[in-house]
Design a protein that fits this description.
alpha+beta, 4 strands, about 100 residues, Alpha-Beta Plaits, 2 helices, four-stranded antiparallel sheet
Length: about 100
């Protein structure tokens, strides 16, 4: 399995319950497909560099995970579909 870092931005206009549900569902997408979540970091609310879909701020999250390429491909597809996620980026980590 390969290590990946996933950063995603969630809409800041969501209520607390929807925000918690969205982030737990994103983690569940990984764990349900036999990926290991090594670290989940809430980086807080930040102002965006430019508006995205009329949103000017968002909640930033960083996940470090170990997963196969197929799991990451499906995870990427589902994040693109999720309407609460403004942007996401998946990076493959170098071997240490």
């Amino acid at each position: 399995m390969t290590k990946y870092e996933v950063m995603f931005i969630v809409k800041a206009t969501l209520d607390d319950a929807t925000l918690a549900k969205t982030t737990s569902n994103i983690q569940k997408l990984l764990t349900d497909n036999n990926a290991t979540v090594i670290e989940f970091k809430d980086m807080g609310r930040k102002k965006l560099a430019y508006p995205i879909n009329k949103e000017v701020s968002g909640f930033y999250y960083l996940i470090t995970t170990e997963a196969s390429k197929d799991v990451i491909r499906e995870f990427d597809r589902k994040l693109r579909i999720n309407e609460n996620v403004l942007r996401h980026l998946i990076l493959k980590k170098e071997s240490e």
